[in-house]
Amino acid sequence: MPPADELPDDQAEVVFTEQSIDWLIDNVTEHQREDVVDTIVGLFRAPRGKHPLSNQNATNLVGFNTVEAAQREFRIIYRVTVKNGVGLIEIITIGQRRDGEVYSAADALVRSGKLSDEEQTQIWDALTLIDETKSRLGLEEWDYVEPPAPEGLVKAAVAAGFDDEFVRLLSKDELVVAMESAWEGGAFDPAAGVAAAVQRISTSTTPDRILALRREDRCGAIMPKLGKPCIRVKGHAGAHRGSR
Ligand SMILES: [Zn+2]
To answer: What's this model's pTM, rounded to 2 decimal places?
Structure first.
């Protein structure tokens, strides 16, 4: 895949190498992490960053780009590609801007061949690892939908008295919570089940809103690294997401 100057719909799958996450955890303060994340979020609209890299100083990073973060204290080396119409941002290395280590580390990763094989970390998991809030990425926690519960479980829940349409909007885990909670008081209480399931999805918004969002079309973009469709709402901002 050749490097890309634009991302379709300003969206992309975003992955981090283990090296880049470890560096963030070890070297960057909480406040600076926010700035680093903001900088990465800025790449959705401006994927060229500061400039494309070339082969110099004994490194060959043709096809990669660089951007500076946190008052130019840090440098991020990354690659932007588009596969079958879906963008991919790979964060390769993050380091001090002033020394060349960030380049040589990126070069070593590229030469090792690990970049293509290595299991890279999705941005959602990376944010959890660095304790960064996901709302920064324009993500509201509830705009994605997991696969539906198995049909047998759905039928059992409907037979027990749950609304069929509601049950089909829940993941397996959520439906199990709904069933357990509905029977908690001894007699079947579907409202208690619904409340428990909705609380499990999110406490930050109203149940109606959550369920309405789940009825909307999914993004469905096949994520280049993950090889799975995005489960966020169609037209979402920023990063594609493949699982909870
Ligand atoms: Zn998506």
So the answer is: 0.86
